[in-house]
Tesmin/TSO1-like CXC domain-containing protein (Littorina saxatilis), 676 residues
Amino acid sequence: MNGDSGCLYEFMNAHFVLQKTKRPFSKLALDQAHEQNNAIIKGEGGAVGLTENPSALRRWLIGGPEIARVIAEFESSLGRTWAESETHHEQRPGFQEDFKNGVSELVRVIQEAGNPFQERSTEFVTLHSNNIVDTAVHKSLQSLHELGCKQYQEFVSERLITQTKKMSDPITRNNMLMISGAKRKRKSTSYRLSNLKSDCRLFSWLYIACQMRRGGLDNFFTYENQRTPPSLSCDGMLRTTTKSDLLQCLEPLQIEHVETAPDVDVLLLDGAAVVNMLRPGPARTFGTYATDVFAPYIVRSLQGVKRLDIVWDVYRPDSVKSMARENRGVGKRKRVTAATVIPSNWAGFLRVDGNKTQLFSFLAQSVLAIPTDKLIVTTQGPIILANQPIDQTDLAPCSHEEADTRLMVHLVDGAKDHKRFLIRTVDTDVVVLAVSLASRHPDIEIWVAMGTGKAFRYITVHDLACGLGAEKAGCLPMFHAFTGCDTVSAFTGISKKTAWEIWRAFPEVTNTFQRLTCPTFELTDSDRALLERFVTLLYDKMSNCQDVNTARQHLFTKTGRQIENIPPSSEALYQHCLRAVYQGGHIWGQTEIPDPVLPNPCEWGWQFVDDRWVPFWTVHSEASVTCRELLKCGCKKPCKTKRCRCFKSDLSCTALCTCTCLENCAKATTTSSSSA
């Protein structure tokens, strides 16, 4: 029998495996048995480095099995024996029960998810959790095959064909986004530290320049000292404020203080607010949440009213509010179906726009199944759903993104047949918009059920509109936007109460607010002048300065204010005004129109960067780059030519410059100035 046929004979007779125990199905390959012998004599570090040392590897292969045999015989001579079990550990009842439970759970998940080959969705879903993978991760995984083929071609070309690289050269890591990867946000502390270093360097330059050039530095305060205005920005983001402080200024104007629910004809619900209030509790799936938690709340709300409107937010990827939503935190994307298990972290689930979009659509459909003879109207994206035939001419299609403004569309539609309305919300913006609408419709009565828990109360909106007067109530949204809302920065250290008191003391700005509340396409010089004066009074109510740049210089040099506690520069304030007009005039000024026409945000203080809208802070560069007095040169010889920035600007060199003979430079510059 030759070698080949002998090997075949041994192979066919299963002589390529070894059975070391009496357990069934426990045979293993000969090379694996050899590895078991090697494991006996391996140290704590294993057999590191053997493959790189041929002589050591040969000694290991020859001596390893013999050492293992000697150790085994020595243990046997000591009488150390173990009662060998004939059953494998996976045959034990505990293991079998765990395995059965795992299979049952996998089957349940697959049944809940359905047949993925019958779905037309392009979303990438993890079966065990029903979470939807982030879009960036999905694109990354889709490109793996293409990237692998490309790198294979490069590997063959560089190492085998052109041989520009060695076979041992490392392959560059791709750093692909994977399912378990998380987005890391920039730490605010590092951002603040960089700004602090920038401020220290800037003011040291300013000190040197004042000593050497004796300039007034009048233009210094027309520029911001940082990349983003510290009076309007917090770590590069919009600076937030406590919007509810405005209600403390408005509520004293109420004539009637309502303690119990008023008798109304129409109830309007902010759907997102209701969902945030209604925790799942014992509900395990989204189906039971809809039937056992949400539906009973709707049934209770229908008592005593003739019509119920449920208005939901719409979440768009190109929204100017995306920055404000990012500050609320992140969560996991999850598919919403009747059988999907509700995540344990309800608040985290509601932080994801995609989750809320699916949940709101699911609840909007489910609410129509509630048996009632009363009219229920709910939104689903741009369309309207109702349990009875209605005229939708003034309701849909609707392009409003926020439920705040869309509630006003439904209120105006309901005013055709009804006169008394109640709005359930937790957002100050809704109260502000309702006051403005009540001033234009004095024949209707509006109440707002505001807040939760101990802060819950009823606000009589028509009383507030009457107490403010038609003029002030009408422009209240513009005042609210200008002093800080979700898409417009607040001024550092200036609360809504402070701004309210200044508005009362400076009524001249009311006409400007009123004009800007209506959709406009220009911000006139007179508007800018009045708004600059208003902002100046916000920071110093006794100031005589008419413009913010003068006020900045006065407050910083005369009163010792910190740089973030002085008004923004004129150009930064202008961009702030544009954002306020876009929100208060174009968006909030068209709340009664279902499909308003909005201008491009690029023209109103925004810029589109990295697939999202971010504030455009100012057209000017930082003071260290733009301010004339802070110029410095890098000359290595006395500065006597126009190649020198200082000489060209008719300025003497300072200690900031790198030239070695400042006296000659200063004399040369002085001589040049005299001859000129």
